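WARN  no MSA supplied for this record, continuing single-sequence
INFO  ligand: guanosine-5'-monophosphate
INFO  echoing inputs
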Amino acid sequence: MGTIFTQIVEGEIPARIVYEDETTVAFLDANPLAPGHTLVIPKEEYERLNDVPDDVATELYATIHRLVPAVEEAVDADASTVAFNNGEEAGQEVPHVHCHIVPRFEGDGGGPIHGIAGEAPDIADDELDDIADEIESRS
Ligand code: 5GP
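INFO  complex generated
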């Protein structure tokens, strides 16, 4: 049995699909955080961004790039928060990569993405240099 999102791709369960191409599909979130809350997924099932092949990642971003203005305009939003919960510890519940496009409105009471951190750590300059080197060497 595939993920709930694979079942949407296969047409086994209904969804309000707003865009579809060969590689990706976008549909309204069933429990929207705002009107127009949309999910963009690759049709193939990959659990995390880290698992997505380069060509699919390119297509996925192209769909996100296309959908962000479409979603904002459709609900007359002032802005949007665009994010992935990438892995269970980051809050990912459905193990099938999905990008949230959440329309935002002036005074909606929501916060910035910085709100994900419990308490921001105090990291020394030396450690920041080491971390930057570690990331750069893997990029
Ligand atoms: P996550 O926490 O994994 O980043 O987000 C999963 C999202 O999928 C949630 O916002 C949830 O409302 C949405 N979702 C879960 N099941 C369904 C479903 O069957 N249909 C649709 N359209 N959205 C779903």
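The chain is about 30% helix and 20% strand.
INFO  checksum written, moving to next record
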